[in-house]
Amino acid sequence: FGLPLPVETLVLAYGLGTLAGVAPVSMNGLGVREGTYVWVLARAGVAADSALAFALFFTVVQTLTALIGGGLALLAKPPGLG
What distances in angstroms separate CA 44 from CA 11, 14, 41, 47, one per listed residue? Predict the structure, then answer.
């Protein structure tokens, strides 16, 4: 995305976004987590549209990773059922 941000800002955005995402106010934290990313990154001088694109990209990456892991778990044999 070419965001001119220090790593510390991205770590802060990730941490606060993850923390906000576990609040029981939305399904799977959707919207709350992305809104937190936009809020943190906007404070660091990133335009809102770029911050939202970053947040949505990160959500897609997390979802695809979870789907791959879930697919592998479905294909794996449970231990002891050999």
Answer: 12, 14, 5, 9
Q: What global pTM score does this model have?
A: 0.73
Cα-Cα-Cα-Cα torsion 25, 33, 56, 69, nearest 10 degrees, comes to -80
Model pLDDT for residues 40-66, shown as the tens digit of each residue: 999 988 888 888 998 898 889 988 999
- What is the number of alpha carbons within 13 Å of residue 7 lying toward its C-beta? 0
Closest CA to 30 of 63, 72, 3: 63
Phi first, then psi: what are they for 74, rounded to 5°?
-70, -35
- Rounded to 5°, the CA angle 44-7-26 comes to 65
Length of the chain: 82
